[in-house]
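re: ur msg from earlier - yeah i can do the 1-O-phosphono-alpha-D-glucopyranose complex, just paste it... oh wait u already did. ok heres what im feeding in:
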Amino acid sequence: MLACNPNAAIEDSPIVSLKPLKKAVLPVAGLGTRFLPATKAMAKEMLPVVDKPLIQYAVDEARAAGIEQFCFITGRGKTAIVEHFDVAYELERTLADRNKTAELEALRAQSMTPGSIVTVRQQVPLGLGHAIWCARSFVGDDPFAILLPDDLMMCETPCTGQLVAAYHETGGNVVAIEEVPRERVNRYGVLDVAEDKGRLVSVKGLVEKPPIEKAPSNLTIIGRYVLMPEVMGFLSRLEKGAGGEVQLTDSMAKLIGMQPFHGLRYEGKRFDCGDKAGFLEAQVAFALRRPDLAPAMKSILKAYA
Ligand code: G1P
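and the outut:
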């Protein structure tokens, strides 16, 4: 078990020395109720956008940012995710026998280094903060990234890579942020801004899903984070917040003033694939970027316009 006295951890080391960022935590225990019946027997993170499951996009993004160790926070009914990242020996053999070289190479390009994925079960769904706390042994004393696979990113420089660069620049916690219309702030973690420097925003507070009229800004957190390990000390209190859940945002807020904490206006676009309309938009947008599919997709869109 990790030493989790939050006060001691923070006061003894106000700024963590900059370690390389090699670890990522991916919470994948959610039930996916918004996609029932599709997700009755299948993990929502395995839903494909074009021909790749959501979880694969998140892992590819993290790997492109230099992440080497992954912790999936899973739950019951999520074994397909682990299978997906295993070597499919028989499938590879069959593809090789049939000279399906392109398909074989695509599979191999995605294969993971042995030992680079661990899974931890979140036995009870107590909230995102609780899910992240379940990774405390994996995280140890290292900074780590969090990727919520429901948020699918389309960015020239992968979003997690942008955060890692900002971590090296600021020396502390960084969350990816975007502006949303006021009437939607109550769905997100919201920034209380200390200083808005454009790309980087220093933060004096964070509120999870505030009522619209009480929201301190319309700058919201998306599902990409780089956090210092001290957040685990606060998470270990398992205090309930908005919606009666253990909220990650509440523990992140406690780091403010003790460690650097910034929001990063990332460059790119986010698709909320936890929502049906967002998921469908992602299918169209990602298909239109594929040379093999764009012409067909364009004529389909014309036909239905
Ligand atoms: C979670 C976080 C929230 C963040 C959002 C981004 O909320 O708690 O702070 O803004 O992800 O997608 P959820 O979507 O799980 O309700």
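cool cool. The radius of gyration is 20 Å. ping me if u need the other ligands too
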